[in-house]
Amino acid sequence: ERFERAGVYYACTAVEARLHTEQDVAVVGGGNSAGQAAMFLSEQCKGHKVHLLVRRPLGTSMSEYLVNRIKGTVNIEVHENTEVEEVCGTKRIDTISIVNKTTGEKTSLSCGAAFVFIGAEPRTDWLPKAVARDKFGFVLTGTEVAKSDAWPLKDRDPCPLETTVPRILAGGDVRAGSTKRVGFAVGDGSLAVTCVHKLLAMV
């Protein structure tokens, strides 16, 4: 926590990248968000190395076109089957300790920043139990609700964004099965308006 925004980031925009153009950096994660961040940083940090730290083989959860671009970028070094053990520094991070989970080999990388893209935990603990969630805590909606035993109404199916509590909607990243992108969340917002009109018409 003490290194958050002092070398540890959970976003990779021009604002964060500008602070580290003259340093080696690391990206943690194996999905498309991590791959896109690595590509962006490879252009911003020319002459410096971008370490991509992936806990599984590269490509397990990343698009093939992105994997090929990463492999063809000279200043990206991929560390597969690797996890971060520690970030070290005084006021800012200076090094990252990593371990290869296959060989057990430990390495210390000189890095000015770590961009972390390893997913997120939904903040849904405050919801009542009546609002059903999947095993990861994401809220069930629409067809997932209809397939479950938790939908209480017999006279109609749930709207696409309706939860297991009739007339309560969920949209965006918190929704189970949603694509975690801003564009999809905006789409859910538009769909929510349609759902609201439909539900109001039933009153």
What does this structure look like?
This protein is an alpha/beta fold and 203 residues long. 26% of the residues lie in helices and 19% in strands. The chain is built from five helices and eight strands. A hairpin with a 5-residue loop joins strand 6 (93-100) and strand 7. The protein is elongated, with a radius of gyration of 21 Å. It starts with 7 loop residues before the first strand and ends with a helix. The mean pLDDT is 94.
Instruction: Using the CA coordinates, give the radius of gyration.
Output: 21 Å
Secondary-structure element order, N to C:
EHEHEHEEEEEHH
Structural category is: alpha/beta
- Percent helix: 25-40%
Give the termini distance in whole angstroms.
49 Å
Task: Give the low-pLDDT segments.
Answer: none
Strand tally: 8
Q: Which overall shape is indicated by the principal axes computed on the Cα atoms?
A: elongated
Largest sheet: 5 strands, parallel
Number of helices: 5
The average pLDDT score comes to: 94
Concise description?
Helix content is 26%, strand content 19%.
Please outline the helices and strands.
Layout: E1 8-9, H1 14-18, E2 25-28, H2 32-44, E3 50-53, H3 64-71, E4 76-79, E5 82-89, E6 93-100, E7 106-110, E8 113-116, H4 142-147, H5 182-201
Helix pairs in contact: 2-3
